[in-house]
Write a structure and sequence with these properties.
This protein is an alpha/beta fold. The protein folds into two domains: about 150 residues, Rossmann fold; about 90 residues, no CATH class. About 30% of the residues lie in helices and about 15% in strands. The chain is built from eleven helices and seven strands. A five-stranded parallel beta sheet has the order 2-1-3-5-7, sandwiched between helices. Strands 4-6 form a two-stranded antiparallel ribbon. It is globular. The chain starts with 6 loop residues before the first strand and ends in a 16-residue tail after the last helix.
Amino acid sequence: MRRSEKKRIAFFDFACCEGCQLAVLELEETLLDLLSHTDIAAWREVMTGDEPPYDVAFCEGSICTRADEERLLRVRRDAKILVALGTCAAIGCHNNLRNRIDTREALEKVYGKAARGMDVTEARPVSAVVDTDYRILGCPVSLPEFIAVFKAILTDQPYRLPNEPVCVECKLTDTLCVYEKGRVCLGPLTRCGCGAICTRFGDVCHGCRGLVDEANLAAMPRVFSREHLHAIMGAVASGQPLDEERIRQMIALYNNYPELKIEDRGDA
């Protein structure tokens, strides 16, 4: 394909709330500028029809049924570039929490007798089923990162996910550490790239962008269990239980595929 030709793009959703696609639509004029360099081949949120093949396929959501898997494999076959759009597609997110219990048991609790005819599999991120060429993280997806990845694709450039913790962006934005407010934050373990949006607006980081590479998960429970705690950590620990299981639950809210292992690397 000549560089002057427009790329044919498509958006697909699997098991998800479709919040990432809705977030993309909030780009408004910026999105229109980006789309002016493309032809839309499929996007259920904004149009009808589906005309493969595609130069780029953005896939949102988790793969939870055999039908999902077959559909994703068709998309992968028809797309030159496949992008995991958002945390559900990239690393699993909330859908994968149900893998911790028996699938049939969960279905029967929710759907009753209707569950008998459901062809459901283990919940998996898109990236666990097919090769992905790009990943865009966030729940919902980070719009600055979406723009950066979109531009990289249009110009045939790679995109490397940031690999620093959210704490870096808190420092850059002069955001007071939420630990000093007596709250537990996953920013030290979580990959940055969101502009520290949650902590800047008064919340903690819940880890929706996934873990930094080689995150020392064992260090977190350890800093709350030492005999002589730092004053800030002591104040946080006094207000809530922070044993290993509680911390595992916090991390697993968005990072639950594959199963988390809190192992002590001994370097923190």
